[in-house]
């Protein structure tokens, strides 16, 4: 995918209780034009991991054309899932080995959607430390937490 537009995607998820009401948020920044898009949303009953995945899915879904995307997230779950676990899950029919037997992958619906969307782009994962003063991560956290409040 030569000469793709460069974008940065910052994401975060939040949950009040796990499970409980949750929120997700993303900031999408187009590096050439400087345009930025912020979005957030949530669910009444969910988990933190589902909200972390939803943030990335919603961000990638907002892209209209294939892009070179650098994903910045504090979610080790999302990062390891994309870079290490998902290829193995796919090869094993979306199952994982646990204590010698095959189990379905948790949040398979979201992982499948993320796989579908990420295949349309050139995706690079960069981990950021949560609550460390990273401006975009802090903003995403603020938006995700605000999204949770609508369900309280």
Structure description:
By secondary structure, the protein is an alpha/beta fold. The protein has four helices and seven strands; from the N terminus they run βββαβαββαβα. It has a single domain (6-149), classed as Nucleotidyltransferase, domain 5, CATH 3.30.420. The strands form two sheets. Strands 3-2-1-4-7 form a five-stranded mixed sheet, sandwiched between helices. A two-stranded antiparallel ribbon has the order 5-6. The longest helix is centred in the middle third of the chain and has 16 residues, at 76-91. The termini are far apart.
Q: Which CATH architecture is right?
A: 2-Layer Sandwich
Query: What structural category arises from helix and sheet content?
Result: alpha/beta
Question: Low-confidence stretches at least 5 residues in length (pLDDT < 50)?
Answer: none
Number of helices: 4
Report how far the terminal alpha carbons are from each other: 44 Å
By CATH reckoning, the class would read: Alpha Beta
Strand fraction equals: 25-35%
Helical content class: 25-40%
CATH homology-level superfamily: Ribonuclease H-like superfamily/Ribonuclease H
Report the biggest beta sheet as strand number plus sense, adding barrel if it closes.
5 strands, mixed
The strands making up the biggest β-sheet line up spatially as 3-2-1-4-7
CATH topology: Nucleotidyltransferase, domain 5
- In round numbers, the mean pLDDT is 95
């Amino acid at each position: 995918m030569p000469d793709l537009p460069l974008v940065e995607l910052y994401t975060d998820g939040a949950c009040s209780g796990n499970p409980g009401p949750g929120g997700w948020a993303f900031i999408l920044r187009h590096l050439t034009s400087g345009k930025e898009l912020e979005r957030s949303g949530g669910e009444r009953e969910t988990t933190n991991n589902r909200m972390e995945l939803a943030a990335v899915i919603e961000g990638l879904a907002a892209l209209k054309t294939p892009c070179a995307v650098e994903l910045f997230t504090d979610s080790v779950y999302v990062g390891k899932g994309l870079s290490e676990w998902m290829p193995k899950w796919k090869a094993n029919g979306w199952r994982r080995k646990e204590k010698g037997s095959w189990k379905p992958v948790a949040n398979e619906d979201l992982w499948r959607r993320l796989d579908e969307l990420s295949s349309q782009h050139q995706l690079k994962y960069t981990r950021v430390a949560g609550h460390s003063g990273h401006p975009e991560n802090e903003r995403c956290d603020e938006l995700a937490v605000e999204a949770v409040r609508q369900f309280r």
